[in-house]
Specification:
By secondary structure, this protein is α/β, with parallel strands linked by helices. The protein is built from 13 helices and twelve strands. The protein is globular and about 50 Å long.
């Protein structure tokens, strides 16, 4: 199947839409449905791989509640990747704890030029994909967003929503620029980034403290962490551990960026981080991807990271992974 990100098509509204070709979304929870739904809203050919919400979405489509409006997307959904068939772009939004399932899911979705875009949290996901299906296929996206699946086929977007997209081990490419443009047409604040790994460490500045303390403090929301002086101080200390680990690996993250992550979180209110939702539901938590792998990489480069070490040890005790 021929595939070129340099080809473009005009939408009915006269907006030039990159011809991304056929897109599959694997992992159709809150993140996959939100970003995949916005791509479908932009006019892209998107099919969602679904199980639990399949019948509802096939009958009613997707609903995305955002910014005071309800967006309806007449989504295509299938139960197996074989039903979807080869695609030009595969967006992977499964939890990292489910990566083993990709060995069966991904092959039917591939052709010679298929791009694999992981939206998963933490470190190690691009490496997982590259080892199995080739580094040249792999890109990643960092989602800075507050949203939950609030009922079958319904996603509620509470705050933020930007996404940074980059190639794995390469600079910005035409295919990344095309995906960013399509997301923008769908209503997402999106940007292409030169260094995907650095962006992953930047996201960990928020994910490590707020997802981790939510569980360690037995169900703390973002507001709970911020309003409690002890938890807020611990969150700031965990951010410093992440900054130290990143710096020793060559990724400089400013203190001002960490300060900004604290300040921007106040608007989230009583939002429950995704790891907390998984933990409360008894599902596996991405302990290794979000806390374990950054700790191993940082300490391997000479960082101490004492707060992260303690948090990782606690999470291994109380959460399935």
């Amino acid at each position: 199947m021929a595939f070129s990100f340099s080809d473009f098509a005009a939408t009915d509204g006269g907006v030039t839409l990159p011809a991304l070709g056929k897109i599959a979304v694997v992992g159709s929870g809150a993140v996959g449905c939100y970003y995949g739904g916005m791509l479908a809203r932009a006019g892209c050919d998107v099919t969602f791989l679904m199980r639990s919400d399949l019948a509802v979405v096939q009958e009613r489509g997707l609903t995305i509640n955002t910014g005071g409006e309800s967006i309806h997307v007449a989504a295509q959904a299938k139960e197996t990747s074989r039903e979807i068939g080869p695609c030009d772009v595969v967006v992977i939004a499964l939890k990292a704890t489910a990566n083993g399932a990709l060995d069966e899911i991904i092959p039917p979705l591939l052709h010679a030029g298929t791009m694999l875009v992981t939206l998963q949290n933490g470190l190690g996901n691009e490496e997982y994909l590259a080892e199995r299906w080739g580094k040249e296929r792999v890109a990643g996206g960092l989602c800075f967003v507050c949203l939950n699946r609030t009922s079958p086929g319904v996603i509620t977007h509470f705050d933020h929503g930007s996404i940074s997209v980059g190639e794995y081990g390469r600079g910005i490419s035409p295919r990344v620029e095309a995906l960013v443009q399509a997301l923008g047409i769908g209503g997402i604040e999106a940007k292409a980034v030169e260094d995907l790994v650095c962006e992953r460490w930047r996201k960990l500045v928020w994910n490590v403290p707020f997802n981790g303390l939510a569980i360690a403090a037995n169900g703390a929301t973002v507001a709970d962490v911020l309003e409690d002086e002890v938890l807020r101080t611990e969150a700031r200390g965990l951010m410093e551990d992440v900054r130290d680990g990143a710096a020793r690996l060559g990724y400089e993250i400013s203190k001002e960026f960490a300060d900004f992550q604290i300040e921007r979180s106040w608007s989230m209110g009583k939002y429950k981080a995704s790891s907390l939702i998984d933990w409360e539901a008894g599902r596996p938590v991405e302990v290794e991807a979000i806390w374990g792998e950054p700790l191993r990489q940082g300490r391997g480069a000479g960082a101490q990271m004492p707060r992260l070490g303690l948090l990782y040890a606690l999470l291994k005790k109380v959460a399935k992974s």
